[in-house]
Amino acid sequence: MAAQAQKANAPSRELLEKLFRTAYKIRVFESEGIKLYRQGLIRGYFHPYLGQEGIATGVCAALQEGDFIASTHRGHGHCIAWGADVKRMVAELLQKETGYCRGYGGSMHIADIRAGNLGANGIVGAGTPLGVGAALANQIKGNDAVTVTFSTDGASNNGTFLESLNLAAIWNLSYVLVVENNQYAVSTRIEESTRDVDLYKRGLAIGVESHQVDGNDSLAVYHLMQDAVEKCRRGEGPILIEAKTYRHMGHHVNDPGKYMPADTLAYYKERDPVDRARNALVEIVGLDQAEIEAIENEIKQEFEDAVEFSKASREITLAEFNEFVEAY
Amino acid sequence: MAREIMYRDALREAIDEEMERDSTVFIIGEGIAERGGSYKVTEGLLSKYGPKRVRDTPIAEAGMIGVGVGAAIAGARPIVEILYIDFAMLGMDMIVNQAAKFRLMTGGDGRVPFVMRTQGGTGGGVAAQHSQSLEALFYHIPGLKVVMPSTPADAKGLLKYALRQSDPVMFLEHKHLYMTKGLVPDGEHVIEFGKGDIKRPGKDVTLIAWSNMIPRTLEAAEKLAAEGIDAEVIDPRTLVPLDKDMILGSVAKTNRAVIVQEAVRRGGVASDIASIIQEEAFYQLDAPIEIVAGLNIPIPFNLELEKASVPQVDDIVLAVRRTLHSKPLAQAAE
């Protein structure tokens, strides 16, 4: 009986494969993207999501069409998990006309409003009020959409964090605030930013159901998120989820992250979210090495195709730019 | 036909009619629901539209402005009422870095039909943090529309238009104007942005003013009329977009311009309008452009000092006399 019950509750191959595919796709995007950056093909800023893939992967797997997300400056992973077209993402980073923002936005501003992605944001903390606003719009329109803001430990000390979550609370909005606690605000350790490093307690303090989860475990994130989404759709939002994680490198591509202690980094790398998603697929579903490689090759190929597509794309013209000069 | 109503009633009519017309229009602010707002603009809206679309907020300007911007991005039409323009400073990130830039940053896909209603200006002893005229801050930021109605009819027509277009609007009312009366046309009354209004036609000098400086400038024009000076008073109504054609057309006729603003002189909109006139109508000017503006100073509490800090009727009259006593440039060169 016990064994049967366990089997019935075991995650499906479909779910585990989806989680691994998403996490791996983010990993490939970021590590290959850094190479393009080093080659000078990507300019400006690039904040890799390496090491944090489990959070976006688990969160977005629990969402559906019609829902909304708001992201951060470290937003590539959220976009990919949300289902963005890698071609149009790479094209945006290469400032091409085929990019999500036609080359006007870049890494920190990729958005896809039509698909409910309110966008990455160059201002730390800004996604919180924007996400709550989308949740308010959906409540006024009377639909059952859930809005998620991916926020950060760095943003949690910004005033709008409290202001927005409090508005979501008093208005019972269908809103999930996911606090990615990677333990650094740029280069400042969380212990230096706050007395209590358990950020989920911030939600509890204002009457918001709040949870903490291992952000490197995409399956655990997914289960918690699924529950949160169901509650929101029943009108029991908002909910705060703090997902603990750690970056694999510094704040952005040009920050070697020397301030990150080697032993802590090693600890989190042993608990790498992509490895764990892969292992789950091997251990729970029984996929063999060849099957895993087939998935990985398919994803790598998708990225290579995206680079070719982007290189072949043109940039916006000055004549087209005039449309904005006129509008503004 | 038209009715004589107060500025605050005209604003309420605009909100009411647009809420009736479009179910995505909603309003949030401090004390705007049951209380009806500090200036009674939203009185009665709660009972008509219910608590879903008329909501009080905590005192959290950054949050409420940000939430309004987010709701606009997601396809609703929020009006966020900020009690004093001074308090809007708490939400500047959301206005400047988010709302104003979203359209361009998204390559044109994202639009932000967000309306922030607030009020500014001196109001009789409300001191430095409740008296500012801050339109220049918003005027400076590409992507924001800046609206400053001076009459009930303009207030209604412009607010209705604000709620039908798709860019972030800084709708700046004036605390002294809420109880002023004026004729408002019956039926649909919508005023497009970028269309100024000649508040008083004249031929001798062009006076450009907005918001509460309009009644003051009109008073000055009447005084000047008694001296035989026929002043034309132009109200651009929206500073962004600005009706340059109307201003330049008037200057071409009068050859003299005086710009009146309540805001401090330094870095103000008046200076920018003066620069536009000298760039585009320099050879039509018979006298230097005069600017009558607030002192470069925070507004003091003391009423006499407050008065001394912003343009009064006589300041405008004097400036006009100066421009008229200037010799035409050609003559001066002789």
Automatic annotation (TrEMBL), chain A:
Gene3D superfamilies found in the cross-reference section: 3.40.50.970
InterPro entries on file: DH_E1, PDH_E1_Alpha_Subunit, THDP-binding
Keyword check for Metal-binding: no
Keywords: Oxidoreductase, Plasmid, Thiamine pyrophosphate
Chain coiled-coil ranges: none
The keyword Transcription is annotated on this UniProt entry: no
Dehydrogenase E1 component domain ranges (all copies): 26-315
Swiss-Prot/TrEMBL cofactor(s): thiamine diphosphate
CDD domains in the cross-refs: TPP_E1_PDC_ADC_BCADC
Reactions it catalyzes: N(6)-[(R)-lipoyl]-L-lysyl-[protein] + pyruvate + H(+) = N(6)-[(R)-S(8)-acetyldihydrolipoyl]-L-lysyl-[protein] + CO2
PANTHER family, A to Z: PYRUVATE DEHYDROGENASE E1 COMPONENT SUBUNIT ALPHA, PYRUVATE DEHYDROGENASE E1 COMPONENT, ALPHA SUBUNIT BACTERIAL AND ORGANELLAR
The protein's role, per its UniProt record: The pyruvate dehydrogenase complex catalyzes the overall conversion of pyruvate to acetyl-CoA and CO(2). It contains multiple copies of three enzymatic components: pyruvate dehydrogenase (E1), dihydrolipoamide acetyltransferase (E2) and lipoamide dehydrogenase (E3).
Name of protein: Thiamine pyrophosphate-dependent dehydrogenase E1 component subunit alpha
Protein species of origin: Shinella sedimenti
From TrEMBL, chain B:
SUPFAM superfamilies according to UniProt: Thiamin diphosphate-binding fold (THDP-binding) (SSF52518), TK C-terminal domain-like (SSF52922)
NCBIfam families linked to this entry: PRK09212.1
Essential cofactor(s): thiamine diphosphate
Superkingdom in the source lineage: Bacteria
CDD domains: TPP_PYR_E1-PDHc-beta_like
Source species: Shinella sedimenti
SMART domains reported in the protein's UniProt record: Transket_pyr (SM00861)
InterPro entries: THDP-binding, Transketo_C/PFOR_II, Transketolase-like_Pyr-bd, Transketolase_C
Domain Transketolase-like pyrimidine-binding: 5-180
Descriptive protein name: Alpha-ketoacid dehydrogenase subunit beta
Keyword Oxidoreductase belongs to the record: yes
The entry's keywords: Oxidoreductase, Plasmid, Thiamine pyrophosphate
Pfam families: Transket_pyr, Transketolase_C
Gene3D superfamilies, per the entry: 3.40.50.920, 3.40.50.970
Entry annotated with the keyword Oxidoreductase: yes
